[in-house]
Amino acid sequence: MNETKSGATPLEGDGKRILMIFGTPKSAGLCHALGDAYAQGARGKGHVVRQLKLGELSFDPVLHDGYDQGQHLEPDLLEAQRQIHWAEHLVFVYPVWWGGLPALLKGFFDRVFLPGFAFKYRGRSQAWDKLLSGRTADLLVTLDTPPWYFRWIYGAPAHRQMTRTILGFSGIKTRRLAEFAPVRPSSETQRQHWLQRAERLGVQA
């Protein structure tokens, strides 16, 4: 878990506590560049930004027995839960693959957003408590598909899953969903514009 590029821990004052989660197994690339640009903008406004790179964590992304039995949480996942509790605002940075979330990010949610941590059912009823309420989120999402096609032809399944059935179910309100697409045919000039946009989003955090 990184807090600054230099490894130093920033002082926590009146700034917002922001946790950035990189949901890709890649150690570099456009997603990381976008996240770093967002963090730069946010830190420039006095916010404290911590980074959690899932590709650098050690954990089994498979929930082997579903929610019927408990599965030992690895130290990195216990630390991730502590960081989520610490944060006021979450930033998820990830690509859309096959119309959905990368398997590593989905596995992270399966293992970390557990009953008793992210939500709690009320007895045997269909009602539940949203245990992560009070937090907000920004989503920085890359796609190869043009956004209009992903939305109107495919129905934006990854966006609905994130905003409604994962974050919304847990009480986290998605504030902004920023698409950076299509990536594959993009020029270097276009990518520089995207980085500038990500930095502006961080300034507005």
UniProtKB/TrEMBL annotation:
Domain of life: Bacteria
Keyword Oxidoreductase tagged: yes
The entry's keywords: Oxidoreductase
Annotated transmembrane regions: none
A single GO molecular function term of this UniProt record: oxidoreductase activity
EC number assigned by the record: 1.-.-.-, 1.6.99.-
Keyword Oxidoreductase among UniProt keywords: yes
Ranges where the Flavodoxin-like fold domain occurs: 16-197
Protein family membership: Belongs to the NAD(P)H dehydrogenase (quinone) family.
PANTHER family cross-referenced by the UniProt entry: NAD P H OXIDOREDUCTASE-RELATED, NAD(P)H DEHYDROGENASE [QUINONE] 1 ISOFORM 1
Record protein name field: NAD(P)H-dependent oxidoreductase
